[in-house]
Amino acid sequence: MTEVDQKTDEKKVVPQDPETVEKELEEVGFVAPPDGGYGWAIVVSSFLLNMVVDGVIFTVGKILQPAWVKGFNISEASAAMTMSILSGFYFFVGPVASALCNVFGCRQVALAGSVIAAVGFLLSIAAPNIYVLYLTFGLVAGAGFGMMYLPAIVIISQYFAKKRSLATGIAVCGSGIGTTVFAMLNDVVWEFVKQDWQQFLVYTATVTISGFAAALLLRPLKASQDQIEKVAEIVENYEENKEKVPESPSLSKHNTPFLSSLELHTAGKHANGVHRNGSVKSIIDAVAKDVEELNRPLARMDIFYTGSTTNIAARSRTGTMNREEAAEHLKNLRDNLKEDTPLQYLSKLDLNVAEDGTIQHVEEKSVMRDIGAALKNLLDKQLLASPSFLLLAFSGTLTLCCFYVPFIYLGNHLDKIEGLTVAEKSFTVSLIGVLNIIARIGCGYIADRPEVSALHVNNIALIMAGLATMTVPFYTAYWQFLVFCVPFSIGVACFAALRSVIVLELIGLEKMSNAFGILLTFMGVGAVVGSPMAAAMKDITGNFDTSFYVMGALMAISGAMCIPLGALRKWELARATKSDAKTEVELQKLTDAEQK
Q1: Where does the chain cross the membrane (predicted)?
Q2: Which of 15, 151, 335, 459 could form a disulfide with 244 if both were Cys (CB 3.0 to 4.6 A apart)?
Q3: CATH class for domain 378-562?
């Protein structure tokens, strides 16, 4: 045996502690985002899915709601409830959709979502009354749209890290394109079907099922065979030499779920003696499943963060710093910047560890467990007890109250101007879509500039959009409506694009997945309440003037109420620190007393 071979063998038998091996396993088994390649096909698919979902949600209401008012002889508020349930469940289903992505993968969930939404629209054709539409058009189709939207966002984070901001920016531009295209196309189709809302729903279902083709492109990112073999080799070496580690602590004292699961799943191999014969290949099938678990979407803490991961450290909790502190924080990070993208993920296998530190079992992947965990995250006590987070969440509810109102009811104010064609009226919504694209690109630029506060930009944009909405009833000329589209589009884009960046600034990365689910729920409430509230005001007053005053005020308030958010979060963290210090002192006193 040569000297080199001897050194190699010595290196292999050096015993390692479980936590070191766990880290090595994660580094080898984790599938790093390629930041390109097939990822650009994923961006195209996400773009098309956003185009279909938002294109339908933002544009069909202004055509269908008046038809339902007339066809069912109901109030504006009753008709508006159908669209509001659709948009509300689009948000409500988010936590469940994320759990389904974790179990089945993004492609399967998006495919199922397109079918469910299309079926919902087709079932609506035979609806005998508005209440059936609440179920078929609102709940069923809304849930399907949520299952199409969330995978399209999640999978971008799996394929992109450093270029994530660019990729996400391109993908969400589908929302603006969809709004622009369908706002004009819907009027043509409406006239073609002779203003028959049931035939129009066939067209809506056809557009929706086209998302099935786009979802087929959502190919999951999997570990290579080479990665799996390397993981198997590490486990083999660890198993052969772990008895050489003196007095190894119990597993319950180590955060080693990936290693523990691998040991458990390869135990049969060891018992049969196959592993001892030196065959690494024999355990590859056993470890492949665990490597897949490591790379599930929700195993990544940054899965809902839409900015580039190179800025995560620079962004994290900067919302609790003043300008000077944030600048110093950013400077220190740049001075110590490393080229490698940081590993932003966690192993999330649930282990049942006995008192002696042995693992009794590892829970297998299951739909109900993951859905239960997702719903449990909605009750995160730490977040729900945080005044700053609740303020952010409630502001989202107020924003969504106004969010869809101009898309649906702006045309009612345009009716005051004589001589406008149907195309001219629809152009305002199309213009909002175009400006939304430009604004979202700008938001992507902001997301990659840690020195710019996303919270401040969001607050200013929402206040401007809200104030502009309040002025709509005073417009008497067409150009005024076109000018209105500018601030409103910017407000909508900033709210949608910067939400995850704001959460990172205030809360940090560790709680982002939980925060995202809770925020979706609060936004869903606003989406359900907003449009019917605006329609009810019209039923009472006879016009939409009061509706725009109130809804615009709510959007402006949603921005204004977040102005002190950074200071509130800073106070909250300081109070928690003092409380922890006090508890530590009290525990030390008890310890000293016991020793005496």
Answers
A1: 38-58, 78-97, 109-127, 133-154, 166-185, 197-218, 389-409, 429-447, 454-475, 481-504, 516-536, 548-568
A2: 15
A3: mainly alpha
